[in-house]
Design goal:
single chain, alpha/beta, TIM Barrel, twelve-stranded mixed beta sheet, 10 helices, globular, binds S-adenosylmethionine
Length: 345
Amino acid sequence: MVAASLPVAPAETAPPRLTDSHGRVIHDLRVSVTDRCNYKCVYCRTGEVGAQYPELNIGEYLRLIRLFVDLGITKVRLTGGEPLLRHGLLDLLRELASLRTLWGEPLDLALTTNGHLLDSLARPLKDAGLQRVTVSMDAVDATIFERITRIPGSFETVLGGIRAARAAGLTPLKINCVLLRGFNDDQVEGFARFARAEDVAVRFIEFMPLEEGRLWSPEIVVPLREIVQRIRKIMPLVELPPPEASETARRYGFPDGRGEIGIIAPVTQAFCGACSRVRLTSDGKIRTCLFSQMEHDLYGRMRAGASDAELRDFIHRTVQGKEARHHIGEPGFLKPSRSMVHIGG
Ligand code: SAM
């Protein structure tokens, strides 16, 4: 939902928005439903460790998500780990689809997946109420793709998943690609062609220091500027206006409107000032920033018997303390204790 287009209620009856102390309105909740994953992408996992954190049961996620919705959250994205591995996911989606925002609208419900199980699950996900998916795909060349995922046969499986998602109406379909110098940075032009051939939005994401191992360095990040310049050499790109103020991607279209390129540049062009997100980990901790050094144990309070009002108050106070920005690349920068797969990307 577009924050700016929310119905305007008279001041005395307008529900309070969830805001932080920097004046940002928080309306976007990312929920990890598991930190298990069936892929071992080289830039994400070492491949040595598996799940590290417990999972809540579906009813518990639902209660916690409802509390956020009571406070003004309008968009919920389910992620992980790999969310399609989570038993009970369809039940959770059915319940979430029946919720209404403070403004009486259905939630904007999305999911991020590696696509491995999408071929068989796309239709049930749609039927359960999911509106759209983002599929991660880090190469359009099968050999490079499988060198990254470390799963033989994964390229054709994911491609089948993407097509099944489109056929099921899980649209607009977005493809996420994390570019890494020396691994897949030669895929930029191929992805531009793929975006047009498949009529999908391909979003390049700059690699952030959130991996399990120690791969990240400024040199491995492929910056936004380079991606745009390279695509412009082979086809014309038109910059598109952001659909909402909190949009994280710089978006580019093609003159005939078929396909789209988005670039999410948290490293070289940080967008913290427009951040509208908060995260709930698979074990029920609130993270107010991907790079938070602190987590806030919402589930622990729920287990201890806190009422809904007490939990809402806790969420409210926690969000108030959201960090102004991340400090990637600055002296003294510390990686968070959890890596991306255990936070929920
Ligand atoms: N398993 C699902 C998937 O593959 O999309 C959801 C979880 S995954 C952690 C979510 C997204 O985070 C993926 O698009 C992945 O490429 C991205 N990601 C993982 N590690 C990252 C990093 N260090 N920097 C930027 N993006 C990262």
